[in-house]
Write a structure and sequence with these properties.
Blueprint: E1 4-8, H1 13-24, E2 28-33, E3 48-50, H2 56-66, E4 70-73, H3 80-85, H4 87-107, E5 112-118, H5 141-160, E6 163-169, E7 171-173, H6 191-199, E8 206-209, E9 221-222, E10 224-226, H7 227-242, E11 249-252, E12 258-259, H8 260-271, E13 277-280, E14 289-290, H9 295-301, H10 310-327
Helix pairs in contact: 1-7, 2-4, 4-5, 6-8, 6-10, 8-10
Bound molecules: uridine-5'-diphosphate (UDP).
The site of uridine-5'-diphosphate has 14 residues, from helix 6 and strand 8.
């Protein structure tokens, strides 16, 4: 019998890719999503149970119906700017929602979970590449909400033997190479989809946020990781938990950094189009460079990024972008 996995936020960008990867690995992903920011059309590899994390009765009923062997928990708000303006939303939905989920799992004796965390928990890092041992000083409510959940999960491991991995994503990007799902945020704030909008003529230019950072070309450096590589790491983490591992916090990145200018140049190459740029002010809260030290995740999950070359990421994102436009 295939094991069922509860995927909160399975209708979102990373969640839907994880569902596809889970199904391919022989699991049945059951998506639990309130569809406030996710898309029902992205739920293709298992049932969709619509519901909110704060709706404990609904959660209990879904867990009773599907009897999951484990959980992958994506459901959360994830806009840094919004979190600064409305911290209550982030603490209630991200932290409060996770508490409601943990209560429901505890009551049903479900004892393991993979958590969608973020490199934003490190804040402005002391050294780059960033190892997991780096102190965590998040600089916005979004990052703080994720760090609080990591700390809660650590306490649950100690107190209840509740097993969990917190996967700290660097910059998730790209799309399913088969073209079935991709990135679809409203509003879109991420660099690669916006650069592709500019390539397609849907925006007059891409604004480059700051060109005087202490980096070789003056623009910010990030560690872009293909969403399918991320999805595979979730399945590897889940397998470890199901085998009895206690879990820990792990960086999910490639170890390679690309500047904003590098990304634009790679997008020009992939799309064959000239992409107009406009200098803009630094975005508040952007550290100059965020790059993972992936040594620990490679060792613990026996996982390696396989599709995360910057041109491969942008190529998959571009195919999805083009297909979306044709469908409109
Ligand atoms: N960025 C930019 N112009 C944009 C959007 C993003 O120059 O229109 C920069 C941003 O300052 C950061 C990098 O691109 O250095 C990646 O930003 P994104 O929002 O994609 O991810 P983040 O690193 O904030 O999670």
């Amino acid at each position: 019998m295939a094991q069922t996995i509860l995927v909160t936020g399975g209708a979102g960008y990373i969640g839907s890719h994880a569902c596809k990867t889970l199904a391919r690995a022989g699991f049945v992903p059951v998506t639990y999503d309130n569809l406030e920011r996710g898309h029902a059309a992205a739920v293709k590899w298992g049932p969709l149970e619509q519901g909110d994390l704060q709706d404990r009765a609904r959660l209990d009923a879904v867990i009773k119906k599907h009897r999951p062997a484990g959980v992958i928990h994506f459901a959360a708000y994830a806009y840094v700017g919004e979190s600064v303006e409305k911290p209550d939303l982030y603490y209630r939905n991200n932290v409060g929602g996770t508490m409601s989920l943990l209560d429901a799992l505890h009551a049903a004796n479900v004892d393991c979970l993979v958590f969608s965390s973020t490199c934003a928990i490190y804040g402005a890092p002391e050294t780059v590449p960033i190892p997991e041992s780096q102190p965590c000083h998040p600089i916005n409510p979004y990052g703080r909400s994720k760090l609080m959940i990591e700390q809660i999960l650590d306490d649950y491991r100690q107190a209840y033997g509740f097993r969990s991995y917190a996967l700290r994503y660097f910059n998730a990007a790209g799309a399913d190479p088969d073209g079935e799902i991709g990135e679809c945020h409203d509003p879109e704030t991420h660099l690669i989809p916006l650069v592709l909008d500019a390539a397609a003529g849907l925006r007059p230019h891409i604004s480059v946020f700051g060109n005087d950072y202490p980096t070789p070309d003056g623009t910010c450096i990030r560690d872009y990781i293909h969403v399918c590589d991320l999805a595979e790491a979730h399945v590897a983490a889940l397998r470890n938990l199901l085998a009895g591992d206690p879990g820990e916090g792990l960086n999910l990145g490639t170890g390679a950094g690309h500047s904003v200018k590098d990304v634009i140049a790679a997008a020009e190459k992939v799309t064959g189009r000239k992409i107009p740029t406009a200098p803009a002010r630094r975005r508040p809260g952007d550290p100059p460079a965020l790059v993972a030290d992936p040594a620990r995740v490679r060792e613990v999950l026996a996982w390696e990024a396989r599709r995360s070359g910057i041109e491969e990421i942008i190529g998959d994102a571009w195919r999805w972008h083009q297909a979306q436009r044709q469908a409109k």
